[in-house]
Each structure stands twice: as C-alpha cells, then as structure tokens.
C-alpha cells in the first residue's frame, strides 16, 4: 500500500541498503597500496586479485536486511508483525556496524594504515532512522484502528 508514509520510509531504507552493494564502504592505504572495503571483501579492487580479507558474513547480513525490509513492505495487512520486523531490522543494522567494526579492526590491528570511510558506511544508520520512523507510523495506524474498533 504505497499511500502510507511508512511504506515510503521502508522503500527509502530498501534503496539505501541496495545501494551498498554497488558502493565501497571504506578505503585503506597500506604501504602505498589502496585497498577497497566492499560488502564482500577488502581487496585491491582489481578483478582477479586476492583480497586481504573476505567478508561473507557482512554480505549475508546485508542480503538478510534487504529481504527483511522487502517482506516488511508487503505485510501491510499485519501491522503487529510489520512493527516486529522493523525492530528486528533495526537490530540487524546495528549488527552490521558490529561486523563492519570487526573487519575494520582486523585490518587496523595488523597494519599501520591510512583510512577513509565512504558515504555508504552511513547508509545503515540512515536506514535505522527510517525504520524507526516507519515503526512509529505503523504503531500510529494500529492505535487508530483500535480506537475505531472501540467506537463500533
């Protein structure tokens, strides 16, 4: 149901998380060599080059977050489940930052590096805010439906 504001919030969060699959999360300079941190690995960025670290857990987590947001959009008739899925999705986005820090720390602890974070590393935080706004709007709808049921 695209008329509801929470669907718009969820669609924007879905777009941000999907954009993370095409953008780097951070860049590291180790001994003059630039390494790119993407959702799947930390590597040189050249096709066929061996990555420094592989981050399959981060890729799986992003796919789960993406699918959960998509499922949440289509559960507009079951508001309670939709609210619960929004909360789970916020927790998964926080888990993304935990894994992101873990892989970042793996690189930093082994080398003397210069690093810079890309704009895509902020997308899960924006998605958390959008999911919270969607949760509030869904809760508001649920309260409105309950109040109308009491009047009947």
Topology of this protein?
Blueprint: H1 5-19, E1 26-30, E2 33-37, E3 41-43, E4 53-54, H2 56-74, H3 79-110, E5 113-117, H4 123-151
Antiparallel strand pairs: 1-2, 1-5, 2-3, 3-4
Name a few traits of the molecule.
single chain, 152 residues, alpha+beta, Butyryl-CoA Dehydrogenase, subunit A, domain 3, 5-stranded antiparallel β-sheet, 4 helices, 5 strands, 62% helix, 13% strand
Characterization of this structure:
This protein is α+β, with helices and mostly antiparallel strands and 152 residues long. The protein has one domain (5-143): Up-down Bundle (Butyryl-CoA Dehydrogenase, subunit A, domain 3). The chain contains four helices and five strands, in the order αββββααβα. A five-stranded antiparallel sheet has the order 4-3-2-1-5, covered by helices on one side. Strand 1 (26-30) and strand 2 (33-37) form a beta hairpin. The longest helix has 32 residues, at 79-110. It is elongated. The two termini are 25 Å apart.
Q: Count the strands?
A: 5
Question: Unreliable runs, pLDDT <50, ≥5 residues?
Answer: none
Q: What would you report as the Rg, rounded to the nearest angstrom?
A: 19 Å
At the first level of CATH, what is the class? Answer: Mainly Alpha
Our estimate of the beta-strand percent is 5-15%
Count of alpha/pi helices: 4
Distance between the termini: 25 Å
CATH topology: Butyryl-CoA Dehydrogenase, subunit A, domain 3
How are helices and strands ordered from N to C? Answer: HEEEEHHEH
Specify the helix fraction band.
55-70%
**Main sheet?**
5 strands, antiparallel
| Strand arrangement in the largest pleated sheet | 4-3-2-1-5
What CATH architecture would you give? Up-down Bundle
């Amino acid at each position: 149901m695209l008329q509801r504001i929470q669907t718009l919030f969820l669609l924007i969060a879905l777009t941000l998380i999907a954009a993370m699959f095409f953008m780097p999360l951070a860049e590291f300079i180790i001994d003059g060599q630039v390494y790119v941190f993407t959702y799947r690995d930390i590597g040189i960025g050249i096709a066929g080059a061996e990555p420094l670290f592989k981050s399959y857990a981060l890729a799986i987590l992003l796919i789960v977050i993406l699918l959960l947001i998509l499922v949440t959009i289509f559960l507009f008739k079951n508001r309670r489940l939709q609210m619960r899925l929004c909360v789970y999705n916020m927790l998964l986005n926080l888990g993304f930052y935990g894994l992101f820090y873990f892989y970042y720390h793996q690189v930093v602890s082994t080398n003397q590096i210069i690093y810079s974070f890309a704009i895509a590393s902020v997308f899960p935080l924006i998605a958390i805010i959008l999911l919270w706004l969607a949760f509030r709007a869904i809760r508001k709808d649920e309260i409105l439906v309950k109040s109308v049921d009491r009047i009947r």
